[in-house]
Amino acid sequence: MTTVVRDPVTAADPAPEPPTSPAASPTRHRIRAAAGFAFGAALLFAVAPLVLSDFRLSLLAKYLCVAMVAVGIGLAWGRGGMLTLGQGVFFGLGGYAMAMHLKLADAGPGAMPDFMLLYGQLDELPLWWRPFASPWFALPATVLLPMAVAFVLGSLVFRRRVRGAYFAILSQALAAAMVILLIGQQGTTGGTNGLTDIQGFFGYDLDDPVNQRMVYFVIAGTLLALLAVARHLTQSRYGELLVAVRDSEERVRFLGYDPATVKLVAYVVAAGMAGLAGALFVPAVGIISPALIGIVPSIEFVIGVAIGGRATLLGPVLGAVAVAWARTALSERFPGTWTYLQGLLFVVVVAFLPGGLASLIGLVRRRDDDAARPGRFGRLRPRRREGTA
Amino acid sequence: MTSIRGRRILAGALTLVAVAAMAACGSKTTDGNTAAGVSADISGDTVKVGLLNSLSGTMAISEVTVRDSIMLAIEEINAAGGVLGKKIEPVGEDGASDWPTFAEKAEKLIREDRVAAVFGCWTSASRKAVKPVFEKNKALLFYPVQYEGLEQSPYIFYTGATTNQQIVPGLDYLKAQGATSLYLVGSDYVFPRTANKIIKAYAEANGMKVLGEDYAPLGSTEFGTITNKVKSSGADAVFNTLNGDSNVAFFKEYKSAGLTAASMPVVSVSIAEEEVKSIGTQYLEGQLTAWNYYQTTPGATNEKFVAAYKAKFGADKPTSDPMEAAYVSVHLWKAMVEKAGAFDVEKVRGAADGITFEAPEGLVTVDGATQHIAKTARVGKVGADGLITEVWNSGQPITPDPFLKSYPWAGGLS
To answer: Which chain regions cross the lipid bilayer (chain A) (predicted)?
Structure first.
């Protein structure tokens, strides 16, 4: 888990270390990363199921879904500098795609979902629902649909060099528009209620605690896989380029790269991760509704990442889980006043730990290192020697 | 390049672990081992009940009053010796005006706190979100708010009005007053949209014309366009299903457009005493509402309820229909438990049919088949003092009919 320290954290560290290229990356790092993943896997697959009750484990599953979105935001915002304030849209696309399939599977072949009979006054299933009856369409769609939307949007926006606040506002507008669309089409989307009462997950009965546990394991495994993807991307040459675009888009352009394409890749990958998170959220929680994908939840995704530390690999995950966990814990202990406490927590973290929770580990490590070998070079030199040996 | 291969192996291994975990843990058999109901914890001297209301977010203003009246009922019952000799211990959770949070908290109350029953929820969306949770865990929810009908869960008791106890009588009243055309204004969510569907079906069958139908997003304060459309339509009356803050903006706009209760009355189904206070009496005076209870409803039981509520929460606090329905729901649960002689959910449900309670709104009776309650419908007029006075009532409690099966014009609705 200690690899995070090496990553440049712009907000916390005004003079980031020059990023080391993968070729120079020493073996120790690889071992550390592997050990970190093994530790994370042990924590998620062995410790959590043993320690937590069925109910708490299902809550953790929900937190981990939020963490998946956070991994994507960490990539697009932390690495790429794109303030994605509309990830709810992609989360929603993935969630609705999955929920539509599960609702149709619950209803049985040829039948219509319960809410359509209630609100829709339809004689048959709307055309755009039909493909979702097939898992071979619905499952890939949970990831590919958000990616396609992100691709179209990103191509238009990045080529026109829309960035900064304008990009953030555009993302927000998209989230608002999607919510209005879903609520307006109550007969075919469930309106404000969303899609609820999901019974089964590919033949597994979701009421069964054993199957809920299975859903948790799938989610935990997926999160680790997404972390591996994110690490791979950030360590690659592409990752270096992405950081370069974030820090100075014009210079990258003059070097002969197209910053729009570089940003587009990160944005599309982040959208895919959010879509996957939404898809897995549905069996874990049993509901997807416009309340989960609008402006407020979209901002909450970003808050988690900011709290955790946006430019690190693990920071967004830690932040997302910590924020979601704090929300549950505080609201259970202080049902009347928890919102104030949560606000206070955000202010304290942003004020005193601008680099997020992940920078806490960094602070501790730096202190250790400084005590042993003061100075920046003192820290880097032995690693280089090791790498070339 | 060893590092990349290493990572690939790692990723592969992770996928394998996930798949293995999935295969090892999944169980396709659904017989027997599905989540059996978690039985309530009644080992101590107390019995826990859950209070699930929004204490934060947009719905807090309404839902906190519901929580207060639930607390009042619990206090009364405890003072009188409790239920089956056990004192009621309330466990509060904040639904935070967020539907998935309602589901999470419902599950927590049932599984972690092991409550005997849960009281609360306001919006239909929150009820729809928790419904599967209560059905899965075979636990009880008492839902105290008027709603759009078309629902009947074996694990929910609906103590607010369904459509045939509020909206349909409201329309009957307008028809009797000679209204032949309506304009529909509502917030953009499930209740108004479904209510308007029913209103349109009613209008068609009763020779009334619906001249327009407009929706504003929840919380919207832009009503210039809608008010102009309402005015130019020349409808005999407006049926208003707006919720919350939007009403403030709508009625201000309505008044400034020169429309009055005399020229074009508005019948509202989501404006009770609490909301009248926040909208401002000057905008609402003379307008109509449809409910089952008003603070002014005559009777000694109501006088006692109003006095007890004001003594506990402040003399300036009005009582309203959803608060009364929530208060009644706790007393009904107590009566059911005592008739059943147990806290067991199935036994309580079995004992429900025919339970009566002398409520502030008058005598209410639980209908076991639908798990709704028979209530008297009342149309009221907002007075200058901010209170609502009854101008018409149905004379006797109306049997709940959530799917409007006894109304021929509603055939195509469900």
So the answer is: 31-52, 59-77, 136-158, 165-184, 214-233, 254-274, 280-299, 311-328, 340-364
